[in-house]
Amino acid sequence: MWSPAAGGTHSRWGAALDGRLAELVPGGPRTQLQRMVLGHDWSATPLGPESEWSATLRSAVSTCLNSRFPTLLMWGPQLVMVYNDGYAPMLGGRHPSALGRPAPEVWADIWPALESMVAEVMAGRATYSEDLLLVMTRHGFEEETYFSFSFSPVVEPGGKVAGLLDTVVETTHRVLAARRMALLQQLGSLPRAVHGSASQAAAEALRVLAAARSDCPFGLVYLAEPEDAGPAREARLVATHGLAEGADVAGSILPELVATAMATGQPQTLTGFDEVLPGLSRTGANAAGESDVHTAVVLPLTSAGLSTPVGALVVGASPHLRLDEEYRVFLALAAGQVAAAVTDARAVELERRRADERAELDRTRAQFFTEVAVTFQRAVLGPTVLPEGFAVHYEPATGTLEVGGDWYDVVDLPNGCYGVVVGDVVGTGLAAAAVMGQLRSAGRALLLESSAPAHVLGALDRFAALIPGAAVSTVFCAVIDPASGSVRYSSAGHVPGIVVDAEGRSSFLEGASSLPLAVLADLRRPEAELVLPVGSTLLLYTDGLVERRDEALDEGMARAAQALAAGRALPPLELAAALTGRLLDDAPDDDVAFLLYRRA
Fold it and tell me: How far apart are alpha carbons 108 and 91 in whole angstroms?
């Protein structure tokens, strides 16, 4: 509070109001500062007694005092200060003693930044600065402040610049609000993709804070495990920024304050931080200069829908700013964004964990039912012991978990030959498997009765016409004579068999193809014969081995022929495994059954 003796004011300042200076503020009640100016003992200043003031000075003082905009008048070679009510708050603790004193003395801490501007104005040129950073000690510490102002020359008659008028507005609050809002927007727009885990989300949030060390010199995030719901939950340090190397955070009072903030849900403030952790708090990143952080705020990380905090955010307060209500609100909002990022990350983690658990359960169930299906199908297909030179394989379609209608069969014939059949019933499931079983049994009986493949398929035509679901089934039937190497075959709409000789040359058995079963009554089935050279391999298969959605059937058949040729030197069992690995690694959409025969 101003007193009559303060700032060199005349002891009878009230009486001075009746002098000529009183005319400078005409009419109406005067503010306290106006009365201070009017009652000041100006004779004790370089301006001299009021009676000796020039008309220009009187006019400039009047303009200053009657303006509601923050205004400072600096007059004469010493730049003596006269200011109004709007300007006084900018002086902080320097008011009211600044009245009547030289500006370079009052503003000694920022004068190096202003001196060149003043010189320019005294030379007759006005200046303008917007949001200029000025580091001043008006409140007893080096403070980061921002001002927009214009220095205008005040000219005496004759053209001499006698002083300057400073119209100014402090923009510190606006500048801080804008940069803090930008920071909060950055925190709020962190993409969900970065939230690989809660710890990573916390680290990413601190990375954003690390780019704003003028407001957040350092930061630490402590998180409690989501399963820990007790009143005395322990939180562990998961992310930091701005820490000095080797700083002993665990041995400080911070963990205790973190526990208190999480237990109470209220922010905790630690002062004297530079004494608690002197090696931790030097910022080295503030435009106002390097200084130890002496205050830290511990904020609980609370999120909507959660009854207890998920952790705590520890943030250093800038030593160059007052920790006022606006600053605290900003820190609370930042903590809210960090909490949201962590909570979101944990939700993503939970979704992934549940998805993984569901996928694992699905894989386990699929594996179980696939094994059941394969076991059942192989039990139906048999035999478990094959003649020399043969190998077989069955695999259900990926994801069906059902038996199907594909089959193979090898029948010992009385004359030392072998009857072989590979067939495919339309559809999947028990219905298709039931039809397959009947056709397979009928085919086996017919082969034992007649060794002519065309006759077997003709009889199967009539049999299939009597069985619901058997029509349009495809069958490849052949009789192999191991002694001569002859193969007689007939195909009812089935994919052609493939033969690869010992040199790797391949051919397709397309000489006896006709319609699928029970499509046309009294159809005469063709029959063809070839001789397998020694070392040749015969592959009979269902279309699931070669058919893919994104390519023509011929391409799949060619790929199968290449795979058969590549493995022609392998024993039949090993060749069957090689074909399975090479041709079925892309998860077939249909059941697969195939049969191999190698002529020794």
Answer: 12
Q: Is the omega angle on the peptide bond into residue 572 within 30 degrees of 0, that is, cis?
A: no
Domain limits, CATH 3.30.450.20, in the chain: 6-170
Cα distance between residue 367 and residue 452, in whole Å? 41
Q: Which CATH class is domain 186-350?
A: alpha beta
Burial readout 165-201 (b: 16 or more C-beta within 10 A, e: otherwise) = bbbbebbbeebbeeebeebbebbeebeeeebebbbbb
Strands of 242-383, DSSP E: 268-271, 295-301, 311-316
Nearest to residue 49, comparing CAs of 57, 41, 60? 41
Confidence (pLDDT) at 523: 93
Q: What tokens were used for 102?
A: 């030289």
- Distances from the Cα of 508 to the Cα of 354, 449, 452, 456, 496, angstroms: 50, 28, 20, 21, 6
Q: What percent of the chain has pLDDT over 90?
A: 66
- The b-or-e profile of 374-383 (16+ CB within 10 A means b, else e) is eeebeebbee
Question: Which of the listed CATH numbers 1.10.10.410, 3.60.40.10, 3.40.50.300, 3.30.70.20 matches domain 382-598?
Answer: 3.60.40.10
CA distances in angstroms from 401 to 134, 239, 365, 429, 583, listed in the order given: 75, 47, 9, 9, 20
Q: Give, as one character, the DSSP assignment of residue 484.
A: T
Query: What are the φ and ψ backbone dihedral angles of 487, each rounded to 5 degrees?
Result: -135, 115
User: What's the pTM?
Assistant: 0.60
Terminal-residue alpha carbon distance, the chain: 116
The boundaries of every CATH 3.60.40.10 domain in the chain are 382-598
d(CA 446, CA 458): 10
CA–chain centroid gap for 185, Å, is 16
pLDDT of residue 273: 79
Q: Is the peptide bond before 383 cis (omega within 30 degrees of 0)?
A: yes
Residues in Cβ contact with 523 at an 8 Å cutoff, skipping those fewer than 6 apart: 458, 461, 514, 515
What are the distances in angstroms from CA 286 to CA 110, 141, 147, 210, 539?
17, 14, 18, 12, 78
Helices (H) and strands (E) in the chain, counts: 15, 21
Within the chain, all domains assigned CATH 3.30.450.40 are found at: 186-350
Reduce the DSSP state of residue 568 to 3 states and report it: coil
Q: At CA 64, angle to CA 63 and CA 70, rounded to 5?
A: 135
Quote the tokens at residue 491.
Answer: 């195909």
CATH superfamily ID and name for 6-170: PAS domain (3.30.450.20)
Least confident of 34-38, 142-146, 162-166, 428-432: 428-432
The separation between CA 512 and the C-alpha centre of its own chain, rounded to angstroms, equals 61
